[in-house]
Amino acid sequence: MKVIYNTLFKRTSTYAVAIIASAFFFERAIDVTSNTIFDTVNKGKLWKDIKAKYE
Amino acid sequence: MAATLRRFHGLRLLKSAPALNLQQAKNLSSAGSWASGNKKLIGAVGAITGGVGALLFALEQSVQASGSEVHAPAQSWNHKGLFDALDHQSVRRGYEVYKQVCSACHSMQYIAYRNLVGVSHTEAEAKAEAEQITVKDGPDDTGNYYTRPGKLSDYFPSPYPNEEAARAANNGAYPPDLSYIVSARKGGEDYIFSLLTGYHDAPAGVVLREGQYFNPYFPGGAISMAQVLYNEVIEYEDGTPPTQSQLAKDVATFLKWTSEPEHDDRKQLLIKVIGILGFLTVISYYIKRHKWSSLKSRKIVFVPKEK
Predict the structure, then answer these.
(1) Chain A closest-CA separation from residue B91 CA (Å)
(2) Which of B70, B98, B111, B246 has the lowest CB atom count within 10 Å?
(3) Cα B83 from Cα B271, distance rounded (Å)
């Protein structure tokens, strides 16, 4: 905890960078996870699952 | 910060109060300083909001036994679940049913061929579908109107030029536009399915005028649309057996999509919202525990004055 505080949170500059970087990774994680859940639940029903038949 | 706090709360939050009082959450509320008129107004707004909500809930829960029509039973649609997308194969078949059966009388003026791309058809297929219609366009360089084959950006053609023509051709009954029909009818796709499969001979005592048919799901029972869906009335390109219920199910799914084109995105977004709000709930709970920890673990010790 102390290491994180001293290297990232102590100075405003590194704190801002930490916020922006973690926002990026948080968004990617949520987005990819929820899309995977949606595609798994609806496997075979979505257009991307049946589009190969018509191209 | 202290100045801002003081402006909104007076000195209450900043003054050091006896520890016993500090533990009471009411001292953290600013409602104590409101004028009595304000309290009454806010109380009235709260009571009215709650009352209207309760009234709407009660109306929605009522039995609805006033009409003579049968209420459509709830079918087990495979897009019914919280995360369940539409079956796009079914949407594609439903488009075939609409095009070959329904579009003879019903318009769908808010849906364009470009909307089919990426939902039920590839771009090339949607272009081919659009090219089958002729569209009046113009004026050209010489000021004349001309007809051309349809493009992706064209909307579905209407069978009648206007409502009067539609009424004149259908015994005075207007075939409604089907673009948003699932949202526009009580019961949604269940109603559409039941209506299309629910035609009967009129029971004794029900008088139908010429051009009317009996359908128990239609309010009043006398509907001007004849039964159109029969077994094998069209043939599906993917080889699905075109039974009456299959046709009705597919066209109801298609109409569900035209009414709620955002259906799949909405449900996909719900998963994201649950994820993010769940994360924020955990953080809020942690911060609450963190902020209150010093207040809750405080001990009051009585130390008598030494003389």
Answers:
(1) 10
(2) B70
(3) 7
